[in-house]
C-alpha cells in the first residue's frame, strides 16, 4: 500500500505539483485518524494565526 502512495507522490512531484506527504507507522484507530485528518486539512486549506 505504501508503494502506491509513494508512486503517486513521486509522479505528482515530477509534474511540479506541491505535495505534503507524511509517512508513519500506525493503525486504523480514531487517535491516528484524528491527528492525520487535522494535519491534512491544515495542509489543504492553510492555517490562520488569529494572534496578530
Output the structural class. mainly alpha
Poorly predicted sequence stretches spanning 5 or more consecutive residues: none
Overall body shape: flat
Summarize model confidence as the mean pLDDT: 84
Question: What is the CA-based Rg, rounded?
Answer: 14 Å
What's the number of domains?
1
Work out the strand percent: under 5%
Largest sheet entry = none
Q: Give the SSE string.
A: HH
The total count of helices amounts to 2
Give the % helix. Answer: 55-70%
Distance between the termini: 42 Å
Explain what you see:
The chain has one domain. It is built from 2 helices and no strands. It has helices at residues 2-14, 30-45. The protein is flat and about 35 Å long. The protein starts with a helix and ends in a 7-residue tail after the last helix. The model has no long low-confidence stretch (mean pLDDT 84).
